[in-house]
Amino acid sequence: MVNEPHNPGMPLDLAWIQQVRVNLPAVKKRAATLPTTRTVKQQWQAGWLLKAVTCIDLTTLAGDDTPANTARLCLKAARPIRPDLIKAMGAESLNITCGAVCVYPSRVAECVQFLQKYNASHIPVAAVATGFPSGQYSLDTRLQEIKMAVSAGAREIDIVINRTLALQHKWEELYSEVVEMKKACGDAHMKSILAIGELGSMENVYKASLVCMMAGSDFIKTSTGKEGVNAILAVGLVMCRAVREYHEKTGFVVGFKPAGGIRYKFFFILEKIQFV
Questions:
Q1: Rounded CA separation 265/53 (Å)
Q2: Would residue 221 show up in a list of annotated catalytic residues for this protein?
Q3: Which of 28, 117, 158, 272 is catalytic?
């Protein structure tokens, strides 16, 4: 992702935000049909699973993280699939690695060093910042945390938005905060975590998605993983529709990242595929 162009953002369009309406029954009905459709045929499943591995931000955000934990994380990111499985698929030349490793800012520098040690310095280190997971810190403190993470070597920053502003529909203030965070990121890509389980409604999710994209977010992300409700299909559908609408109006594609509550075991599934 680090080589992808940045979202330049746009001026806040309050008229666009205020006209948002979400048909909740229709969203739930559409989300319910998604798991019933098999879109990838058997012979292509391995390829799609390999692609999925390259999109994973391998993450540890525990209070008892140590250099030993982050070393294992970085090694797993550099070599996410067993060599015998890679050989069975004839994928040795693809150099399959995870998309990023994601840690707290205090662990960024050591992750950079470990990835260099494992000849995987192309894998970016992502840092959660801005008072993760609550975001209940002063703006100055949140901006300083971003700058410290970037200075330590983070190439992606996962911010958390101020949910209070979203719940109070203070979209101008939320936009201004995210713009300041984007500036603090410098050359690092910024992912905006909405913490959808704390936004109150699907309309708030859609509006917060638009505000973050207008403010220059390169990705919008569902959750911190610490809320009671995290990534679910209905929310993903709403956020992806917001991404589509933003692209239709601006021509720029913003990424979508589900996080929290995802239980699909890619590595387990890979081991169960029968290779001829």
A1: 10
A2: yes
A3: 158
